[in-house]
Amino acid sequence: MTASLAQQPIAAHTAADTEAIRFVGVSKQFESFHAIRDLNLEIHNGELLVLLGPSGCGKTTTLNMLAGLEQPTGGQLLFGDKVMNVVPPEERDIAMVFQSIALYPHLNVRENIGFALKTRRQPKQVVEQRTTEVARILDIGQLLDRRIHQLSGGQRQRVAIAQALVRRPQLFLLDEPFSSLDAALRRQMRSELVRIHREVETTMVFVTHDQEEAMAIADRIAVMNQGDLLQLGPPLDLYQKPRNLWVAKFIGSHPINVLAARFADDAAALLPDGSWTAPAGAATVAAVRHASPAGEALVGLRPEHLALLPAVDEAAPGTTPAEVYTRQILGTDVLYEVQVGSELLRAVTPTSQLYEVRQPVRVRFDWDDAFVFDRASENRIALPTSA
Predict the structure, then answer these.
(1) Are the C-beta atoms of 221 and 215 separated by less than 8 Å?
(2) Could you report the per-residue pLDDT of 238-266, keeping only the tens digit for each?
(3) Buried b (16+ CB within 10 A) or exposed e, 263-290
């Protein structure tokens, strides 16, 4: 019997044998402060879900409720059909990795990884097999006999993840585990986490405030702010179809440009003085005016979708004059700030397209790449797509 246990793969829980986890109208209140309000969220079996938002948005409180460290004050948290609101952490079959790396300095790597199994009185052969297997997955097999003080930050983080994985949890929770690492190591650990998730097939919930990190690793992202779930979906859906202006601003490598606009006839008058006329087409104008009869809206333009043209292209339709204000070389891309009327707009171009500071240019965009938001609600207005 011991031998058969030792031969089991590290992924004990897969999408096929684990039921979904659901928040049904869950709220969490601390005295008069509402940390979570009416949260409805289903975590799919075997997925890597990222809870994303700024500090104080409720993402860590949500994670703590999953772990049993906090209890909901309203609604139900279900693992499959079982209500988990008051089930203690030790009965939830979960493992957590925190921002602060908690390792036993008096034990070597092998002993740190196997410690949880030993305390559960697992047979020595099972402890050794699982420790070796998880060390292989995390590429730390060569470190098993080292002491913790002999490890780098990234190696310690791998050991912390191995400590959690070796237990074969049903649910793997990570609370900003890479935030203390340098930028290069964070990128490496993101790639490692995606590979590990693919190999172990365990449901993972990852908390971060870093949208770039979320976009890089997630199957789906839950964007949260001030205790509310604003949008849930695959990374590209959030990038290409933000539900509202807040999500559009939060998702993206560079801050989005937001311009006041008035839609009438077949065009939009942009900028506070309406001096930039951008042909929009009758269908686009009709869609905006259906949502906002006065035709007043906000136009969102991602910097990578704002095109810069030589100033000599004065006849190009939909363009307006601008001047380069700042320039940052980012490697393969260049980030510009350009002065357009009274506005400073950001544009990203390839390095093959270089302009000098104070150089006159013209700017334009395609409505297929633009977002239009109702000025009052700031919800995105669906625009017709071109054929």
Answers:
(1) yes
(2) 999 999 999 999 999 899 999 999 999 88
(3) beeebbbbbeeeebbbebeeebbebbbe
pLDDT at 14: 40
210, two tokens: 């870093």
Which residue type, as a one-letter code, is found at position 222?
A
User: Could you tell me the two tokens for 117?
Assistant: 């199994």
**Tens digit of each residue's pLDDT (9 = 90 or more) over 87-124:** 999 889 888 887 767 788 888 999 888 888 888 888 88
Q: Which distant-in-sequence residues (6+ apart) come within 8 Å of 7 by Cβ?
A: 129
Q: Give me the torsion for CA of 285, 291, 293, 298, rounded to 10°.
A: -70
> Cα separation of 94 and 97, whole Å?
10
> How far lies 123's CA from each of 5, 116, 141, 263, 360, in Å?
9, 12, 21, 72, 74
Instruction: Take residue 272 and report the two structure tokens written for it.
Output: 């506070």
Measured distance CA(292)–CA(381) in Å, rounded: 9
Coil, helix or strand at residue 6: helix
Q: What is the separation of C-alpha 317 from the centre of its chain, rounded to a whole number of angstroms? A: 37
**pLDDT tens per residue across span 209-221:** 999 999 999 999 9
Give the distance, in angstroms, between the CA of residue 178 and the centroid of all CA atoms in the same chain.
Answer: 14
Kindly report the pTM of this predicted structure: 0.86
Please work out, in degrees rounded to the nearest 5, the angle formed at the alpha carbon of residue 224 by the alpha carbons of 223 and 226: 160
Give dist(CA 14, CA 199) in Å, integer.
Answer: 10
